[in-house]
């Protein structure tokens, strides 16, 4: 399994584009990483950079970014709205694939040591990388910000984990860097229709997990209550895994609640939005929109879109793009500037345009382009890809009937029933669309194997093995098409029987398309299985394919009978 981690350093420069570009170039020139996002903020005077890659490459790139920032950013001259302690303020490593949080924590500790040893920049280790329990909280590491660093370095209890015994010229210039390891975090600002930082802070205290200090009498001016150990008694906020403050942004002329959601499983983005809206309304303030800083996982937006659709009693069985659009509009993600999911969603950015073009070369074509491509003298796309596409159209028709039924006047109480059917259809549709290109890729793999050299005995053996492996794959792909297309029949049957009667013919056409997909893919299974030398393996695949085909033929007949019955009764 590929090992991938993400790094999201926050640099204390958001206004000087030349400095920002030099830091980003230092990261990219390290090699082996992909910069996904660069998000500068003028008011905060801070830039969030997001990049991913193999662990070793990310650690090297992070070091080079810190080195460059430490040479270019003079913290003695820095001013901005966001708390900060150094030229590179925070430097978290985040597991993405094949790497544990504990492994990231070890990497972060090693990186912090290297930054101090090699660059002379003091480092604190926070969250999962913390050496001290209290330093799991970034706010503890950054307490007093840059200005408090001379005092902290002199205090053994507050000194950096890796740092000098006294305040050095390098520490004065570059400040201290907080190096950590954490799970994915969403940084988000909620826009308010007020200019009051005090009101924004009050809302932040209402919702953040830490909450606000308990006071005697007046909740604002009363004496802060201490416990028996002299620690401030806190009144917790309503959102778990959330840190928040209020501030005023000159650039926008509004106050915001600025939040880090550190546990997105406990507090999804849409839950945070709704709770900030509630707390704001209780104070006579309205949330006008949402600003995501850096990147966001796709699931955060699709979960939000589905949440708001369900609130409207609308079907969630629509395309991913439409679900995300609902999320954008519901939370006002485009309130301050256009929101382009292709530039903000981490999963979209992890794939290059070239990779996406290869992976989805056919399904990205227009209907006309796909038809003409099929009609060309090229052998691919051929019957296998066409079968998968016919299956996708069959599933799409069943999904359409489900969505029309969910939104049918007078059927409002049944919206969830049909929404669930539509979601099933979307999953089948998505799988079959992927198989359109996979079938053509399987054919191309066979052609590549036949094109391998065969001058020596060793080359012949390697070529023969490659041909057999490619042939087996080319047999398995259309069988996957058969399995996926066959799963459309229960959906189409339910829509013919229970769906919007005005669309019953669409369910019938869907059944015809699904059966054609199954039988078409069967032909491809048979022709490719004929080239397999392992006849036992071939017979297993053929037996399954024949069984699926027989069931598909019967399912189509049953659905068409129901369709004809419904049409006759109209």
Automatic annotation (TrEMBL):
Protein name: Formimidoyltransferase-cyclodeaminase
Domain Formiminotransferase N-terminal subdomain span(s) in chain numbering: 3-183
Record flagged with keyword Methyltransferase: no
Subcellular localization(s) per the UniProt record: Cytoplasm, Cytoskeleton, Microtubule organizing center, Centrosome, Centriole; Golgi apparatus
Entry's EC annotation: 2.1.2.5, 4.3.1.4
Protein origin, superkingdom: Bacteria
Assembly description: Homooctamer, including four polyglutamate binding sites. The subunits are arranged as a tetramer of dimers, and form a planar ring-shaped structure.
